[in-house]
Amino acid sequence: MIDRQPAVQGPFAGLVTALAASSYYTKRGILVVLDTLVLAFALWLAATLRLESWWPVLWERYAWLLAAVPLLSVPVFIRLGLYRAVIRYASLDALGVVSKATLASFFILVALLLISGAEAFPRSVPLLYGALAFLAVGGSRLAFRILYARLATRRGAGRRVLIYGAGSSGAQVWHAMQLSAEFVPVCFVDDDRNLQGRRIAEGRIYPPAQIPELLDRYRVDLVLLAMPSAPRKRIREILSGLEPLPVEVKTLPHLDVLVGKDIGLGHIQDIQIEDLLGRDPVPPRMDLIRSCIAGKSVLVTGAGGSIGSELCRQVAAEGPARLLLFERSELALYTIEAELRGRYGTSLEMVPILGSVRRQRRLRAVFEAFRVDTVYHAAAYKHVPLVEYNPIEGVQNNLFGTLATAQTALETGVETFVLISTDKAVRPTNVMGATKRMAELICQALAAEGGGRTRFTMVRFGNVLGSSGSVVPLFREQIRRGGPVTVTHPEVVRYFMTIPEAVQLVLQAGAMGQGGDVFVLEMGEPVRIIDLARKMIRLCGLTVREEGRPDGDIAIELTGLRPGEKLYEELLVGDNVIGTDHPMIMRAEERSLPWQELGQLLGRLDGACREFDQEQVRAILQAAVDGYTPQCGIMDPVWLAGWRRALAAASEPPAVAH
After folding, report:
1. Which phi and psi (to 5°) does residue 542 adopt?
2. Is 521 helix (H, G, I), strand (E, B) or coil?
3. Is 504 exposed, middle or buried (CB count within 10 Å of its CB: 0-12, 13-18, 19+)?
4. What is d(CA 236, CA 240) in angstroms, rounded to the nearest whole number?
5. In whole angstroms, how far apart are CA 248 and each of 165, 243, 551?
6. CA distances from 393 to 390, 401, 462, 622, 643 (A)
7. pLDDT-derived band of residue 647, with 50, 70 and 90 as boundaries?
8. How many whole angstroms from its chain centre is CA 117?
9. 3-state secondary structure of 129
10. Would you say 554 and 537 are in contact if contact means Cβ atoms under 8 Å apart?
11. Cα separation of 641 and 614, whole Å?
């Protein structure tokens, strides 16, 4: 059973409860009356202590002061804003207002004595009165705050919380929860042995080994990780220990998000996928990042996407002469421009440009007008099943969009062109991956053809956490709805990296290229998607419904591989990879095609797209891309026949009405 302190009882507890539940004007009136009585009592007590008598003789002449001083002081209290504060949230800051108010009351007493000519009145009484008034008025506020917090805790309606971390963040959250009806803090856990056995407020600090026992003893509903400055490695270790336990886990954001802010209940959030899979980032080499950005005219295509928007954020922070946001979606462009405008105002020259990377004349006009120095090409269709069912659009955007952008960069003298690629370009089983590998081949061929006028660099990495279409928000939403959580195959594994880390490495790799380089980012260990689903379910305090546990909360449903999906992704076509002077970036040595041969393939591919010949499109991609093996059964014959009928109907001349 939980160790309980005696509940607050008696008439004063009833007064606190009534005061908390009453209206603003009622609370204000009660406090005015209370302060009037408190000031009169403080003045009487000051004289009693000084003259060592319960009713000194001087009150026969000066008893009117017991009424005059409070009545004149309360209007001053109102003027100073003493009654505007919410007493249940009163803090040490409120004592500053109390000190001003009681000092004013002291001067009122002195003035009344001087006006009335009270030479016989002891001079030490006003001084004692000032001190006692401060203690009484300020103490009443703090007493109300403490008693209200205890009453809220004893009501027990909130979720019972164990706080992991007894540092300053944990202490702030504890005090905030004491004033909340939603949470009831019950104890702390901390790794520091010097803290174990001690208390913060009413909360005892225990060692982590006792967590399973504490969950039962305190009937804990929620474990809150209050360790915003802890390394991600340590957070992962803690989560691994908490995962098997039947309790929900939430956390505070990392310290870089909280910097300069008071920690409150609004910062409590679900466990972020970065906490489960992320790693502590390697400090960036700022010389590499700034070499292609600082003082340059920088253009980002796909500026409103997951990767493109983060590229814009990090580029903007490094002092470009000009930042061009090139995006086809009006909403996405508006969103990222509004964010950056709010952050940088007029200190950053920023140009939002609506346009498609497939329109080469539009690109040329932009590149020439703004004298672009650096291009980060992030515009692409990336959702594998959608591109698989729309291969022509995928080829046009991912492949020919890259061709138009890269050729324009070469022709207009752009210094650096960085292509954002993907691990799905390696031995692809889908159109999306094949188009991205073709985009790499285009940049490699143009690098060889251009004679070094433009440095073409390709950066290849795996899945990024939190991007649109990511499995993580999908799982979270499915868990919120009560399941099932859908996984395509029990053996599917993926690499994961946070978007900020991936973009930071892209900026560094882009500056390392000599021309035609394919860089591969070190993605860490691959993750089984079904294991990720299980972790997310358990850390929500729920159980997995599976064989041996039919009464579990959330089921995991296997749906089968989607069109073009692989069981696992690779980052290299071959084994030829060499390190660089950056521990997280490798250089891949892979086969490229000469521009003459590639140009012929592109011509055939363009013709097949114009004819809407999807089989021919796949055949050409298969001939051009090493290891491209389209999965059988991807194109449903009925679905494909429907496309052909629609195409035939569109090519027939319209009927003439008679």
Report:
1. -115, 170
2. strand
3. buried
4. 6
5. 16, 9, 18
6. 6, 10, 22, 17, 14
7. low
8. 67
9. helix
10. yes
11. 12
Per DSSP, what are the bridge partners of residue 420?
A: 459
Query: Does the active-site annotation cover 382?
Result: no
Position 323: which residue type?
A: L
Q: With contact defined as beta carbons under 8 Å apart, do 463 and 495 qualify? A: yes
| Contact of 507 with 291, CB cutoff 8 Å | no
Model pLDDT for residues 422-464, shown as the tens digit of each residue: 888 888 889 999 999 999 999 999 998 877 789 999 998 877 7
Whether this model's pTM surpasses 0.70: no
Per DSSP, which regions of 348-435 are E strands? 350-354, 374-377, 416-420
pLDDT digits (tens, 9 = 90+) for 5-60: 334 444 455 555 555 555 556 767 777 888 888 888 888 888 788 777 777 777 77
203-206 and 199-200 as β-strands: parallel, antiparallel, unpaired?
antiparallel
Q: What is the largest CA-CA distance in the chain?
A: 120
Q: What are phi and psi of 558, to 5 degrees?
A: -90, 125
Kindly write down the DSSP assignment for every residue of 527-561, as one continuous string. EEHHHHHHHHHHHBT--EEBTTBTT-SEEEEE--P
Among residues 27, 250, 424, 436, the one annotated as catalytic is: 424
Give CA–CA dist 400/474, Å, rounded: 31
Query: For 228, how many CA atoms within 13 A lie in the half-sphere containing its CB?
Result: 23
3-state helix, strand, coil in the chain (%, to 5): 50, 15, 35
Q: Which residues contact 450 (CB under 8 A, 6 or more apart)?
A: 410, 456
d(C-alpha 405, C-alpha 384), whole Å: 23
DSSP secondary structure code for residue 400 in this structure: I
CA angle 315, 319, 325 (to 5 degrees): 45
Q: Tokens standing for 208?
A: 């982590």
Could you report the per-residue pLDDT of 583-606, keeping only the tens digit for each? 888 888 778 889 999 999 999 999
Distances (CA, A) of 59 to 50, 63, 121, 339, 621: 13, 4, 10, 68, 104
Residue with tokens 């340059």: 296
* Nearest to 40, CA basis, from 2, 72, 3, 82: 72
Helix ranges restricted to H, 271-400? 273-277, 286-291, 306-316, 330-344, 360-369, 384-389, 391-394
